[in-house]
Write the structure tokens for this entry.
Amino acid sequence: MATMPASLLFQDEYAHQILAGIVQMFQLTICAWLAAMALGVLLAMLRMTHKRPLVALVVAYVEYHRNIPMLVQIFIWFFGIPTLLPQTVQVWINQQHSEFIFAVVAIALCSAAYISEDLRSGIRAIPSSQMEASRALGLTYLQAFRKVVLPQALRLALPPLVSNTVLLFKNTSLAMTIGVAELTYVTREIESQTFRTTDIYVVATVIYLSISLMIMAAGAGLQKRYRIQGR
């Protein structure tokens, strides 16, 4: 009798592997998203200073990461960058699960380029008079940016930020190419053990689809809650 796709989840050995893959996927997603968001805010802030050297540096960063496939960037970080590090640093990183660390770095750096552009579009939609008024009230540039401009920019940029969050989540599957045991990696391992290709990939598809829809639903809820009146 053919095995139903969901039946794989009820076998202890495979269920444990799938659960471990989901946990690793969430860890990778959360770490990469937090780093990408922090760096994206910094890049957007530097881009809006209108200082030519900083702007040129940010533009170069964004164009590089937006035009080089993320898979290539992951390979560069995992296979190329370690060769430039001192031997002691290489040994330490290898002891700390280097594949996970470099996957987080590569995904975060690439995603930060997209996030910074999303935030920049939100910032540009805010009248410059708000920054000028904030400075006139005695706030520094950083204070005005953090307390006045950024909160509004985040609201305006929520739709593309949600889309890029879903994209970041899906791109974590690329980490399997360097040995990160996330969901896609585990799916291939189970497929090679059971030869139930359709069954296990249907299970993985349902998991990815469910999580993506939950992220989009959460984003829609945030947009509704923090919608700026009149827009």
Notes: Residues 12-47 form the longest helix (36 residues). The CA atoms of residues 121 and 157 lie 7 Å apart. The chain has a mean pLDDT of 89. Residues 5-225 form a domain with the MetI-like fold fold (CATH 1.10.3720.10).
